[in-house]
Design goal:
38% helix; binds guanosine-5'-triphosphate; alpha+beta; 130 residues; globular; binds magnesium ion; two-stranded antiparallel ribbon
């Protein structure tokens, strides 16, 4: 997508990518910290209703910067230029997930990519990282 291209343009590196139609059981693990919230059953049902694109992005402060590019949980509170600020209106249809800590990112990578990620070096990295 256009936003995937922006991640690349900014200097982030895509190290895993797949289309997945996740089961409710898989999604209940992914969203385990939200179990018991009133919107939880609807969230699982919605996320299991079709395929999702799973991606792992690597780069400087990828979790923090990725969350900033994603915008706030409520799209109405998200700035223009963020994914949710440009492409979403409702909290329960906010398009994209982003790991909220490095620890959770590691857990989520294990859950979605048990086969592992792809490590490689881009020739332009010296122009992106100090
Ligand atoms: P993720 O990147 O998707 O994890 O979003 P987040 O970290 O900004 O929010 P959080 O982890 O608290 O919630 C996960 C997802 O549950 C959100 O992205 C929303 O899709 C959904 N969600 C969270 N709060 C609400 C809510 O109050 N109502 C509804 N309908 N959905 C919610
Ligand atoms: Mg979250």
């Amino acid at each position: 997508t256009e936003r995937t291209y922006i991640m690349v343009k900014r200097g982030f590196k895509l190290i895993a990518l797949k289309l997945v139609h996740a089961t409710p059981e898989h999604l209940e693990k992914h969203y385990a910290d939200l179990a018991g919230r009133p919107f939880f059953p609807g969230l699982i049902k919605y996320m299991a209703s079709g395929p999702v694109v799973g991606m792992v992005w690597q780069g400087l402060d990828a979790v923090k910067t990725g969350r900033a590019m994603l915008g706030a949980t409520n799209p109405l509170a998200s700035n223009p230029g963020t994914i949710r600020g440009d492409f979403a209106l409702a909290t329960g249809r906010n398009i994209c997930h982003g790991s909220d800590s490095v620890e959770n990112a590691e857990k989520e990578i294990q859950l979605w990519f048990p086969e592992g990620v792809v490590q490689y070096t881009n020739d332009n990295e010296k122009w992106i990282f100090e």
